[in-house]
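Input/output pair, single chain:
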Amino acid sequence: VELEARYHVSDQFSLVSVYDHSRAEINKTIEDKSLYKGDALPGVARDRINLAIEFSQPLQHALLEAKITYQYTGSRNTAFNDEYYTYRELPSYQTVDAQIGISFDQWNLMLFVNNLTDTYAVTGARSNYWYREQGQFDYIIRPRTLGLRASVTF
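Output:
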C-alpha cells in the first residue's frame, strides 16, 4: 500500500508526504530450503515514510527552488529467518536531505546536501561464512554528501 498527499500551503510552499507499507513475505513453506510461510523477504522494510517541504519562488528572470526531505526506513532482515547463517535484524533509520537551486530558461544550478545529519545506517550485510573474516562487512548508506549539480535542457 502506498499513500501520497500534497498540500499547497501557499503559492510558494508545499508539503508532501508518502507512506509505503509492504508485506513482502513467503506465502508457502518449503522446508528443505528453510523457507516458512510468513518469512519476510530480505532487505524489504515493512514501513517507509517520506516527508518534504518544498519552496518555489519565481524571480524576474529565474525560478528559485528549495526542498527539505525527511526519510524513514523501517527495520528489515538480511535473510529469510534465523536458520540462515547470514540472518541479522537491521534497525530502522532516518535521513534528512536538503537542496536549493535556481533555474534560468534551460539552465539549472542546484546545491544539495544528502544525509544532512550524517546518519550511519546498515542496509545489508555479508557474513564470514564463505569468505572468512576478510569477507565479512556491512553495506551502509552514503555519509553526508555535499554537491553542486548543473544541468541544461535542450
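The longest strand covers residues 47-58. The two ends are 37 Å apart (CA to CA).
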